[in-house]
Every structure is written in C-alpha cells, then in structure tokens.
Amino acid sequence: MIGNYIVDFYCAELKLIIEIDWESHNYKYFYDKNRLKYFYELWLDVLIYNDDQVLSHMEWVLEDIKYNIFKLSNN
C-alpha cells in the first residue's frame, strides 16, 4: 500500500509502480486519475498495462518492463 492506495507491484529502489488494470477500472476514471496524481506527487514512476496486454501480449509487457527498469536504473 502506498498512502491509501493498493498497488499491484512496487519497487522501492527504483520508485516504480507496476499496475495491471482489469475491466473493473473502466468505471473508475476519477479514482484512477487521483491515484496517479498522488503517485506522481511522490515522484513515483508508474507503468500501467491493461488485461488484454497482459493476457495476449505478455512478451511485450515483460520487454517493456525490462526496458523501463533499465532506463530508471541508469538515471
């Protein structure tokens, strides 16, 4: 948990949150908007993937995560 928000995955060393948004997030626009704003105010990076990306394109998701971890660890 970060603040009042539950996150799917968090790496404190990189200050990186990884979120997988399932269909339930389709109706939570303002909640998600406020949650992202809060994370950005804490200087956290957030990667968000939807359920279709995870279920149908897992290789791409993993490559994207690896790329972002590499990018963040070299800053």
Computed over alpha carbons, the radius of gyration is 13 Å
Strand proportion, as a percent range, falls in: 15-25%
What is the structural class? Answer: alpha+beta
Spatial arrangement of strands, main beta sheet: 1-2-3
| Total domain units | 1
Average predicted confidence as pLDDT:
92
Taking the alpha carbons of the first and last residues, their distance comes to: 25 Å
Q: What is the chain-wise order of helices and strands?
A: EEHEHH
Task: Tell me roughly what share of residues is in helical segments.
Answer: 40-55%
Number of strands: 3
Number of helices: 3
Give the biggest beta sheet. 3 strands, mixed
Give a description of the structure.
- By secondary structure, the chain is of the alpha+beta class.
- It has three helices and three strands.
- A hairpin with a 4-residue loop joins strand 1 (9-11) and strand 2.
- The mean pLDDT is 92.
- A three-stranded mixed beta sheet has the order 1-2-3, with helices on both faces.
List keywords for this structure.
75 residues, 47% helix
Question: What is this structure, in a nutshell?
Answer:
The chain is α+β, with helices and mostly antiparallel strands and 75 residues long. 47% of the residues lie in helices and 20% in strands. The protein has one domain.
Topology of this structure?
Blueprint: E1 9-11, E2 16-21, H1 29-41, E3 45-50, H2 51-56, H3 58-73
Parallel strand pairs: 2-3
Antiparallel strand pairs: 1-2
